[in-house]
Amino acid sequence: MRKRILITTLIIASYIYCLYFIFFKQTVGLSDDLIFAIISTSSIFLLPAIISKLITKKSYFGIGYILATLIYPLSYLLIYFLSKQFNIESQTLYRALAYLFLTFTSLSLIFLLFKKDIQNYANIKKSLVIYLGTFALLIGVYTLLGIKTDALLSTDFLQHNAVANEMANGQLCLTPNQCSNLFQKLGYTTYFHSIQAFVTTGFNLNVGIASTIFNFSLIATFAVLIAKILNRYFKNKFLILLGTLMTITVFEAGAYSFAFIIPQTFTLFLFLNLLSERKLNLASLLFAIPILLANHFIFGPIFAAFALIYYLFQKTLKKDSNTLKVISMVSVLGLIVTLLANIRGFSIEKFFQLSEVEILGSFSNYYFPQNLSFLSTQYGFLIVFFIICAIYIFIKKKSISFAYYSITYVSICLIFFFLAPTYASKFLIGTSLFMSFLLVYTINNLKFKKWLSTIIIFILFLSSIPFYITNFKSYLTFYTQNTGVISGITEDDTSIIHFLSQKKATKCQIVSDPYTQLMVRGMTLFETAQGQYQSLDTRRSMITFVSNPNNKTYEEMIVRDEISNRFCFLYTSRIESASRDINPQNVAWLNNMYDYEINNNYGVSNLKLIELLSNKGFHIVYSDSNNILFSRE
Amino acid sequence: MRKLFKIFFLIFALLSFGISLLYGTRIFRTPYIYEYINNSLVVTIPNKIWFEINNQQDFLSKDNKPTYVFENDLLEYTKSGYNIGYIYPTYTSKTENDTITKTDIVTRGKDTLEIKRSVKIQNHTPYDSYISKISFSKYGTFLDNTYTQDGCDISVSSKSGELIYDQKTATLSISYNPDEVGEIEDTINISVQCKGL
Q1: A436: nearest Cα among A399, A403, A400
Q2: Does one domain contain both B20 and B83?
Q3: For residue A459, which residues of chain B lie inside 8 Å, CB to CB?
Q4: What is the SS3 string spanning A70-111?
Q5: Inter-chain touch B23–A443, beta carbons under 8 Å
Q6: Which of A383, A392, A454, A580 has the most B C-beta neighbours within 10 Å, making it the best mutation to test the interface with B?
Q7: For residue range B168-187, what is the model confidence (pLDDT) as tens digits?
Q8: What is the residue extent of each domain of chain A?
Q9: What is the ipTM of this complex?
């Protein structure tokens, strides 16, 4: 009872802190408060778990959780119709509902704690320890690498925020491209964005802190979920804990499985919920699949297929160990064949997607032998242990179906990787979980003494850390500004962004360099000339115009498809930075679609440009040392 | 069978731990890359700026009149040693023709690249100096033998050469006066430090 009161006090204190924060601390504008961000964002992931437990009366995770996430898109639709019907500002409704959800989550959690079910209490306690432990671990990693908690480490967050902002502003967006031109391909519905809107608009958090804590919350919830999955197969608590830690301390570049929250990782999260379901049946699987599809049009079907394979392995073929072994062996054979084909030079990207490569400006994949080097630095020894464990499981007479499933999962992902369609590394999504599972399973099966197996897995976990830190650090290179600050948001953009976010009546399209366009689109309601996906030709014509402003270069720039008739020109020092290259042909962001200049502190001064634009009817509506905004409105 | 597997597993786990520790010793060092590409030693630093030392830019000078010495000569290099953790590979490059032989041995310490240079000129008397260049990919500021751009500082020092930076072309010249037998021995240290990395 005393322990329950301790946890209850913690929950009540958190809730009171939020109330105090909302009513007394938060003034106008966005919040950067770390504790408020942690509590509020955590409640976003907790709410579906609570609903699942209250309704199904069985489990916090699983099918119930997946279905309960529907509360977010449904809330969005409700807010949309209420705001239209009663003329209420949808942002206000978003905030009201977010706090209502927070209240419901806190009270329900207390209610669940005091239920007589001892197992339930033990589960909550364990989950809380793992959740908070993961948060502490992540904050530790950030501190070690010199990253502040309000740093933005994923430009994708801004891209999705553009849609979330429009949704919270009362726009009807069923797919992202209905509300923003930042999405060139139709990859998902706005299911994910309806959740992000609760974090940024609902709880009024600044994008930096919102993105970090949103990521942390997902990773921590992943950890709880993975521990739950492992708990079904292992009794040793340390093995479960270290297996979980080993899974989340693999930085999968491109897939970002346990690093950032984006639609593909959220789909993985929902998929793992399916795997955590104790009694998965076909009917519930069929209910969940449309939600997977709504979250990602590529990974949704892939995970749906993986879920069906899982269902076959766990239900239909569970007792037929030989068949399972043959299936997993065939998948390994497929992996060997694709690896050999890749070594011989075959790849989907090179053979069938050259037109896409032309648009991107370069190949998106590593090729032999760099791809093997990529795998070895990404997974460290986990990939070697995968081979060892697979051999052990194949030699063994009989293994559990999940072991065969794990081999099959990893092999299929690697097959995709070696077939190499564009951005093939994305297809490695979630593999670290199955590699870790195989490792823990093999150690457990080799029947070492309990202390020895714990030490071995601990040593292997420690071995994975240098690879994790190295990969994470290498990822941070892009986000490291020339001031030493590690973040996608630069201090030099805040004033212009603030200025634009106040100008709600102005409707011109902002034309600037691709990175500034992303900043503007992600944090204001202004449309841009295709944000960060501005074509290479438009980038070049803009540079030509700025470096040599005259009627000809101006006309050549404005005839580009992305630039609308009603545009405002935002001249930044990022554009000016191109002139620092000795050879103008080498400017990275003019040659590769996914290359950007992040720094904006080189200063702007271009009298010829100001003169020409003023002759064209533009006037300066905003200026600072690094940005000048020209408008005709 | 299981026993054998257990022993193998245990040995491999310990081995992987040792190698991971070695791998991790590089984590807090500046992650720049140095390699030979197209006749040049190219150093790419994390902020994407790169600089190169290309032998084809080397010249002998007489009254400020340059005579390029390796215009048509290709460089040959060998790579030796391991590339893991605190251990970096060593490159030995050699360019030679009838009049000049130049050897550079490139090694990396913590964040410093050391180039041990040896040049032998057959007939040096008509010339005043031998000049080699380091070319940067972007314009930057150069102060106290340190090139600075985009949060990275590249400090260059030479034991026996004189450093002269040309702002217009963003090139750093190292000028040597050959000794009486036409030999130059030098150690160039290039240290790379970047903010936040």
Answers
A1: A403
A2: no
A3: 13-14, 17
A4: CHHHHHHHHHHHHHHHHCCCHHHHHHHHHHHHHHHHHHHHHH
A5: no
A6: A580
A7: 999 999 999 988 888 999 99
A8: 1-8+41-293, 491-631
A9: 0.92
